[in-house]
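Long-time lurker, first post. I've been practising inverse folding by hand and with some scripts of my own, and I keep getting stuck on stretches where the structure tokens seem ambiguous. Below is the full token string for one chain I'm working on. Before anyone asks, I'm not after the true native sequence, just a reasonable design that respects the backbone. If someone could post their per-position residues I'd love to compare against what I wrote down in my notebook.
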């Protein structure tokens, strides 16, 4: 049943570079009948836009199509919808936590790279102002983290 699916939200700043990749990668590793994976940005600059072409390209190179995605902004209501909320960096994490109004909501939120290195609070670097190599690096980090999430979730 659709409503019984486990719901996972990937969050970055603009929802056009990192979290769309995280969404596409994790979706590919999980059964869509059991898991609903979405993404959002803490900022609203890019609402309604396609992912950045550099994210589209690195996903495509790895066999994943993310062109069905459109950017959305994180809102406090997402705490009610989602079971797990993964932040890409410390700033995203702080901005999400600032909107929580209970310990239960805060407990849903974690830094995605803590899946690889627990408690490290390592960040997925923002690739927006760099070149395509930054996107390859983001892809590798997220693929590793999402493989771990897919085995334990
Ligand atoms: P994202 O990257 O948070 O990974 O989607 C960014 C996208 C846009 C901007 C910054 C980061 N921006 O400043 O517009």
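-- Answer (accepted) --
I ran through it position by position. Result:
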């Amino acid at each position: 049943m659709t409503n019984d699916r486990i719901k996972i939200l990937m969050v970055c700043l603009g929802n056009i570079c990192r979290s769309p990749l995280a969404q596409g990668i994790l979706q590919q590793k999980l059964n869509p009948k059991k898991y609903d994976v979405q993404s959002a940005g803490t900022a609203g600059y890019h609402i309604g836009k396609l992912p950045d072409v550099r994210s589209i390209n690195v996903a495509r190179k790895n066999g994943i199509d993310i062109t069905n995605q459109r950017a959305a902004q994180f809102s406090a209501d997402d705490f009610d919808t989602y079971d797990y909320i993964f932040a890409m960096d410390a700033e995203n994490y702080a901005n999400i936590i600032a909107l929580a109004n209970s310990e239960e909501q805060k407990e849903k939120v974690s830094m995605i790279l803590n899946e690889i290195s627990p408690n490290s609070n390592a960040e997925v670097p923002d690739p927006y102002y760099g070149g395509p190599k930054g996107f390859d690096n983001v892809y590798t980090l997220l693929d590793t983290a999402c493989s771990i999430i897919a085995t334990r979730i």
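A couple of notes from the structure itself: The longest strand covers residues 6-12. The radius of gyration is 14 Å. Happy to go over any region you disagree with.
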